[in-house]
Every structure is written in structure tokens, then in C-alpha cells.
Amino acid sequence: MQALGRGLSRLIHFTSVIGVLAVTLMMLHITADVVVRNLFGIALPGTIAAVSNFYMLVVAFLPLAYAEEGDKHISVEVVTDLLPARAQAVLRGFAYVLSAAVFIAMTRQSWLEAMKKQAVGAFVIQEGWRIPIWPSYYILPVGTALMALVVLYRLATHVTGAASGLRDDTPDDVVVGGKDHG
């Protein structure tokens, strides 16, 4: 089971690198557009379309699984921390099931939408340029599918009690390899 977790972590790391590259490219693209606009009075074609239809989608949806893997999503445990450990475990399992159902539904629906956009060849026109945007519709199902995989994997390790192998499943108060993780 740990090998599966490590493989999933590698996939998540790969998509996170893509997210970092998207942020970097977006920054460079916008900077180049501003410089060219101010020096030469012309705009780089497609900047707005690229930022809003590609870069931002990658930045928003690919890191979902990264945040879940590291258990970094916002959570409020005011009431649950007061419950017995068994009740907390049942609620955690329920949260995994519910989250998986939501992300599987999002993946399915966004995949169907992406296929529709590809079929019609969706595009935007910016500054006289026809810019195809249908490929960007596949970013959402990739991000939500990866998130669903992480949640399903967490559910499996939660139910079986197996060691995870995911990147950040070391409890905060444990010292590993001489380093305090707390």
C-alpha cells in the first residue's frame, strides 16, 4: 500500500511542478506584455486569454491534490476535537466518502464539458486573433480526478489502517531522521 502512496505522491509532485511552471510562465508572460505595451505601444496577442483560460486554471486546480496530500486544506475541528477518538474516526471516514463522491462527480461532469468544448472547437477572439481554448477545459477534470484519487487512497488507508506512503502523513509530533516535524 505504501508503494501506491509513494507513486501517487510522485504524480502529485509532477503536477505541482506543472503548477509552479504555470505561475512562472504567467508572471513572465504578463511582464513581457507590460514591457512591450509600454515600450512599443502594442500588446502581446493572447495574454488575457492565456492568463484566464490556461495559467489560472492550472494554478487553481492542479494543486488541489497537493494540498490534500499534505493535509493543508482549511479545516475547523472545534466540535470534532471534543468527540471520542472512535467518533472522530467515523466522521473522518464519512468526510473521505463525501469528498470522493463530490470530486468524482466534478471529474465526470468537467470531463463531459471538456469533450463538448473540444467537439465544437471552443475559442476566444482577442485583438483579432482566434485562440483555441478547448484544451484548457481538460485541466479541471485532471485536477479533480487527482484529488479524488488522493481522497480515495486516504479512505482506503483509513479503513485498512495501512501505512500511507503519502508525502505528509507523518504526525506533527514525530521526529524522523533527526528532524522535528512539529
Automatic annotation (TrEMBL):
Question: Is Oxidoreductase there in the keyword field?
Answer: no
Q: Where in the cell is it found?
A: Cell inner membrane
- Give the record's membrane topology: Multi-pass membrane protein
Subcellular location, principal: membrane
Keywords tagged on the record: Cell inner membrane, Cell membrane, Membrane, Transmembrane, Transmembrane helix, Transport
The molecular function terms of the Gene Ontology recorded here are: transmembrane transporter activity
Instruction: Provide the Tripartite ATP-independent periplasmic transporters DctQ component domain boundaries.
Output: 26-159
Entry superkingdom? Bacteria
What is an example of a Pfam family matching this protein? DctQ
List membrane-spanning regions.
Answer: 12-30, 42-67, 87-107, 137-156
UniProt KW Membrane keyword: yes
Q: Which PANTHER family match?
A: 2,3-DIKETO-L-GULONATE TRAP TRANSPORTER SMALL PERMEASE PROTEIN YIAM, TRAP TRANSPORTER SMALL PERMEASE PROTEIN
**Protein purpose:** Part of the tripartite ATP-independent periplasmic (TRAP) transport system.
Q: Know the name of this protein?
A: TRAP transporter small permease protein
